[in-house]
Amino acid sequence: MISRDVFVTRFGGVFEHSPFIAERAYDAGDIVEPLTSGGVRDALVAIFRAASVDERLGVLRAHPDLAGRLAIAGKLTEDSRKEQAGAGLDRLTPAEHARFTELNTAYVTKFGFPFIIAVKGLGKDDILTAFETRIGNDRDAEFATATAQVERIALLRLQSMLPET
Q1: What is the b/e burial string over 152-161, where b = at least 16 CB atoms within 10 angstroms of the residue's CB?
Q2: Buried b (16+ CB within 10 A) or exposed e, 65-88
Q3: Where in the numbering of this chain does the Oxo-4-hydroxy-4-carboxy-5-ureidoimidazoline decarboxylase domain appear (predicted)?
């Protein structure tokens, strides 16, 4: 059986800067070997969904702005850097960057957490369209959408780490 320390080290970053999810999943005894992306995802998502609203909000707030200051400063996690680069967010024109900055600021002001979207398979125009649409949501709808996107990101990260079920 994989040890708690090894499990948390390996999967503690699947939910951005939120190792408590991996810790609780391991402690709950829901980790079944052999490890698969679906099995680990199910265990981690169950913990995420059972977390308090404040804890889930903390997970949302741990995500970086898309094409934001952390990206510019080179301070994204490796997963976030690869995900944003794959969507072309590291190659924005000055006008596109200005639009992302404007939307990021308006979104965080309105909702209290950054815009989150699983960018795999999307381009910058797709992301901007989703951004412009979702900023019109109310807070409850957007909290639900953002948490669903966090779960999608977790699955995509796990699929790159483990065999599928």
Answers
A1: ebbbbbbeee
A2: bbbbebbeeeebeebbbbbbeebb
A3: 3-159
Give pTM, 2 decimals. 0.89
CB 83 within 8 A of CB 28: no
Q: Of residues 24, 63, 134, 157, which has the active-site annotation?
A: 63
Instruction: For residue 22, give every residue at least 6 positions away whose Cβ sits within 8 Å of its Cβ, in sequence order, or none.
Output: 7, 8, 11, 12, 14, 15, 44
Residues 61-75: pLDDT tens digits?
998 777 665 455 465
Q: How far apart are CA 3 and CA 136, in angstroms?
A: 45
Amino acid, res. 103: L
How is the chain split into domains, by residue range? 4-57, 64-152
Q: Is 63 a catalytic residue?
A: yes
